[in-house]
Amino acid sequence: MNPGTDRRSIRRATFLFVLVHCAALLFVPHVTAAPPPKSPPNIIVILADDLGWADLACYGGDLHETPHLDRLARQGVRFTDAYSSAPICSPTRAALLTGQHPARLHFTIWREAAVNGPPRDKPLIPPVTLTDLPKDTTTLAEMLQGAGYLTALVGKWHLGDADNAPEAHGFEVNIGGTHWGAPPTYFSPYRGPFGRNRELRFVPHLEFSQPGEYLTDRLTDEALRVIDRAGDKPFFLYLAHHAPHTPIEGKPSLVKHFEQKITPQHRHQNPGYAAMVASLDESVGRIMGRLEERQLADNTVVVFTSDNGGFISDSQGRRVTDNTPLRSGKGSLYEGGIRVPLLVRGPPVASPGTICREPVATADLFYTLLELGRIPIKDQALPRDGQSLISLLKEPESPLDRDTLYFHYPHYYATTTPVSSLRAGDWKLLEYHETDSVELYNLKEDLGESKNLATDQPDRAKNLRNRLHAWRTEVEAQMPTKNPK
Q: In this prediction, what percent of the chain has a pLDDT beyond 70?
């Protein structure tokens, strides 16, 4: 064969091959590559200690300045009828991390009181309760850690001794968490004598603090480091502030600011407490600022709430806070003891700046955050004392599939004797165990619980009391007993 002819034949064949294949490609359907699945959202829970329902400006606070929390409310959903699962700290924290009611856990009083045992100089003897969250209890941190989250506690733990520390319950990082409740002081070095027994207390893992450094600021510094060090890994940050729990110690410049601002017309009259709330608000602003700076805000759920209602007793000669229009405060099952602020911002929120009036409780956050972490709730063999609030974040006016919340505090406190309670719709019933008596209120018409309707509506009171008894039996709630002395 002529070599020139052979080369021309090869070129023609190659040209025809390419032409045919190019033409064929014109008839192949265009397939767009599926976008990579979006990573689960980061989760930040900011828990205040003893912050009252009416202490934020967006909830009607008249002295306190909370611009960052008010902004969080405008960016998310503000719940008006949110409740702590207990009227004091440790039980509510247990409910948050387990989704179980404190009565079911037999964890109904704060840890120090549980360790000391019940008083024996009252008409009733309260039950002996757990001092530590059992290690075999499944926690939110354990489940999120199993789903690939970095889990970190910064701040107050108050759920167990060293054998039941945060590290034993799913937290990879623990900064500041101990078996103690309140700190001895909010100023560096965060150590000193505490309480009547003058025991030495301290907040660990806050080494190399500087003179004048403030606890709320330092815990926020540590929380920001967690966010920075998480890298590309989704994180669960549980920022459990001590503020504004006693001792009432605000930064001096802020205390002076509120001293000059207070007038007789203000409902809130404690400048030190107002200063502590302002620092708490600043902390939230710093957290949100770091999320925006790192472009994480759109894929981070931020939850802000309190462990119980505001503390209304005196400290250093001043009443700490005022929960008006709610009745009473911390320790009580009146609204002032258990109704708390709840703000949620993040991807599930369909309409920022909305208000939800559906009654919800702390235990609900467990199931809400599991669903956000893409952990199937229905596959978990867990007691169900709460339910996910995702539907409310999407449609705040859509009701949940329940009509009753229950509360149980079989102990004494400055504001109460042993008591159980329920809220069913607009109705609230309290059963006091010392006197074997009930009180009935319509919260829609009487938010301050000033008019007891138990005598006017005996059938309703009886029905609700029976439901309360049935619930206590179901969860095997511990009851106080008569004191034989």
A: 92
List the chain domain ranges: 42-399
C-alpha torsion angle, residues 315, 79, 140, 373 (rounded to 10)? -150
Q: Any idea what DSSP says for residue 28?
A: S
Q: Which of 158, 83, 172, 154 is nearest to 115 (CA)?
A: 158
Q: Which residues, in sequence order, are CB contacts of 169 under 8 Å at separation 6+?
A: 97, 133, 135, 137, 139, 141, 142, 159, 160
Residue 252 near residue 168, CB atoms below 8 Å: no
- Lookup: tokens for 470: 């049935």
Rg (C-alpha) for the chain, rounded Å, is: 27
Dist. CA 385–CA 430, nearest whole Å: 20
Is 179 one of the annotated active-site residues of the chain? no
Closest CA to 60 of 265, 258, 241, 268: 268
CB within 8 Å of 56: residues ≥ 6 apart: 64, 66, 69, 70, 277, 341
Res. 276: pLDDT tops 80: yes
Angle at the Cα of 395 from the Cα atoms of 369 and 299, rounded to 5 degrees: 45
Separation between Cα atoms, residue 416 and residue 436, nearest integer Å = 14
For residues 73 and 59, give the distance between their C-alpha atoms in angstroms, rounded to a whole number.
10
Instruction: Give me the chain's average pLDDT, please.
Output: 92
Alpha-carbon separation of residue 92 from 159, 193, 421, 441 (angstroms): 10, 26, 16, 24
Measured N-to-C along each axis, helices 362-372 and 89-98 cross at an angle, to the nearest 10 degrees, of: 30
Q: What is the pLDDT of residue 474?
A: 97
- CB-based contact 166:141 (threshold 8 Å): yes
Selection from 93, 227, 54 nearest residue 152 by Cα:
227
pTM for the model stands at: 0.92
Query: Is 64 a residue of the active site?
Result: no
At the top level of CATH, the class of 42-399 is: alpha beta
Q: 253: which 2 tokens?
A: 């410049």
Catalytic residue among 64, 68, 101, 158: 158
| Confidence at residue 371, expressed as pLDDT on a 0 to 100 scale | 94
Q: What residues have CB less than 8 Å from 229, skipping those under 6 apart?
A: none
**Residue 267 burial by CB count (10 A; 0-12/13-18/19+): exposed, middle or buried?**
middle
Chain segment 302-339, per-residue pLDDT in tens: 999 999 999 999 999 999 999 999 999 999 999 999 99
**Which of 64, 68, 89, 433 is an active site residue?**
89
DSSP 94-147: HHHHHSS-HHHHT--S-HHHHHH---SSSSEEPPP--SS--TTS--HHHHHHHT
Structure tokens at 386: 């709460």
